[in-house]
Amino acid sequence: MYYHSFSKYKLFFLIILPIASLQAKDIGSSPLPNIVIIYADDMGVADVSYGNPLSKIQTPNIDSLAAQGMTFTDGHSSSGVCTPSRFALLTGQYHWRRFHAIVHAFGNSVFEANDFTLPKMLKDRGYNTAAIGKWHLGWDWESIKKPGAVPVKENEKRQEWDSNAFDWSKRFRGGPVDQGFDYYFGDGTINFPPYTWIENDRFLYTPTQQVIRSKPLAGGGTFRPGPMAQEWDPFEVLPTTTAKAVEWISKQTSEVPFFIYLALNSPHYPIVPNKEFHGASDAGYYGDFVVETDAMVGKVMEALQLQEFDDNTLVIFTADNGAETHAFQRLEEFNQWSSGEHRGVKRDLYEGGHRVPFIFRWPGRIPPGTVSDETVNQVDFAATFAKIVGYSLSEKEAIDSHSLLPVIIGDEYTRPLRSATVHNTFEDEYALRKGNWVYINTTRAAVYKESEEYLEKRGLTSFRNSDTGGLLFNLADDPGQSKNLYLEYPERVVQMSELLQQYLAGKRGAPYIP
Questions:
Q1: What's the pLDDT score for residue 383?
Q2: In the chain, at which end, N or C, are there fewer CB atoms within 10 A of the end residue's CB?
């Protein structure tokens, strides 16, 4: 049995092997693999233990994935917040080519009608596809809005609506089933209304009351005001979505390959670990929520084994961005830092904002227990899957995506795989990664002011009010981004700034290979 209980499981180690070249088999000659993406929410790169017995948070099931596959130490999401990263993952293009911010409650879809998406591509190759859990990419609210309905409150970013403004019996368009997924189950976004369950394009329960913003929670967080169904409970979101994923997997057969995108709500605010996980970590309720997340990973892996899909399934575990700002409090209270040796948290252009857990497991293809320091990004999933399933990307599809296939199967390739990577959270503020160098075109790489206690504990200096005009770091010597080299290497700053402008002007992030 794959699933490990959190209670006494402490002993686990990761076998570190050099990346030896496998005999690269012809991928096209083998049965198409099933593909499973497990996407955590607001999880720092050091919130998983990877076999470290000293970690304040033990994650044995995620550690097992790492031991059986490849861990990327330099893996990134596209953004420091969730909607943009999810869009980039599903489309193979940087989010900033279209937008920057998250979709707020009752916000419209970020997709356009003819967008390339992973599920559309995989359906084209005969896959069954499912999205389960958090969506947070917008919906067509006009399709269910009653004539003449107006919001209770409104500003330039957000709208508040009551339950009577919508016809909850109508088809709810613009979501996952309109982007190539055959099946969807989830509650949209756990801290955004409406608080109810959605299956495919229908609401299972009608929201009849306003959410109680201060519902009893284990470890902090609130809910945006809006309609809630009595049948919805935040503590049930994680176990329910996992159970639905397990149920959907159990209905698949070996005759038809499948793709499931399981977007967990954890460990995002609100922090709601169930009681059986309270005290499971040494990092408070947040750590307990990560442990419960790990247990859900184990349940999915157990389901794959029970259905005998295990050996022909590529499983990817990663997260949409770094940990929320509560990480500063955990550092003080539990001496646990979600970003490991890196600086920054969710929203930041510093590494901690977008460097995330990143694991590929594919038995028979990926050497077990291997570790790669290649710089990779979630936009790379598209080209990787396209190579695996034999799909020819057009010149306009997945324009920022590099195939990771040579890296994960140990084939020869020219390093570095990515010539450069562009990170972004807010408009006009970008980080360009090229080799070990990071150029940031603003000194506001930390969105919120870093506390003096944090800076002192980590041996850092605030650059927020620096008059240099930007930041430059060499991660090889300074992974914690403590020394700004902007004034010491003016020529490099100019070169990287010019390259960034080329990307922003439309330059592809990946070369087009017909």
A1: 98
A2: C
Residue at 377: amino acid letter = N
Q: Identify residue 333 by its one-letter amino acid code.
A: E
Phi, psi of 115 (to 5 degrees): -60, 140
pLDDT in the model for residue 157: 75
User: Is the backbone peptide bond immediately before 270 cis, with ω within 30 degrees of 0?
Assistant: yes
Among 16-20, 345-349, 367-371, name the one with the lowest average pLDDT. Answer: 16-20
Helix, strand, coil percentages in the chain from 3-state DSSP, rounded to 5: 25, 15, 60
Tell which phi-psi region holds residue 133, choosing left (phi > 0), alpha (psi between -120 and 50) or beta. Answer: left
Q: How far is residue 51's CA from residue 344's CA, in Å, rounded to a whole number?
A: 24
First to last CA, the chain: 43
Specify the pairing of strand 70-72 against strand 313-319.
unpaired
Q: How far is C-alpha 318 from the geometric centre of its chain's CA atoms?
A: 6
Q: Count other Cβ atoms within 10 Å, centred on residue 386.
A: 23
DSSP state for residue 352 in the 8-state scheme: G
Q: Calculate mean pLDDT across residues 130-157.
A: 94
- Is the bond preceding residue 193 a cis peptide, omega within 30 degrees? no
Question: Residue 392, class by beta-carbon neighbours within 10 Å (0-12 exposed, 13-18 middle, 19+ buried)?
Answer: exposed
Confidence band for 22, pLDDT divided at 50, 70 and 90: very low
Q: Are strands 421-424 and 430-434 parallel, antiparallel or unpaired?
A: antiparallel
Distance (Å, whole) CA 158 – CA 33: 42
Handedness of CA 256, 306, 233, 38 (dihedral sign): negative
Tell me which long-range contacts 141-146 makes (C-beta under 8 A, separation of at least 24): 141/106, 141/107, 141/108, 141/166, 141/174, 143/170, 143/171, 143/172, 143/173, 143/174, 144/168, 144/170, 144/171, 144/172
Confidence (pTM):
0.94
Question: What interhelical angle do 237-250 and 284-306 show, nearest 10?
Answer: 10
What would the pLDDT profile of 68-87 be if each residue is shown by its tens digit? Answer: 999 999 999 999 999 999 99
Got the DSSP string for 469-514?
SSEEEETTT-TT--S--TTT-HHHHHHHHHHHHHHHTT--SS----
Q: How far apart are CA 196 and CA 234, in angstroms?
A: 10
Q: 402-441 burial, b if ≥16 CB within 10 A, otherwise e?
A: bbbbbbbbbeeeeebbbebbbbbbbeebbbbbbeebbbbb
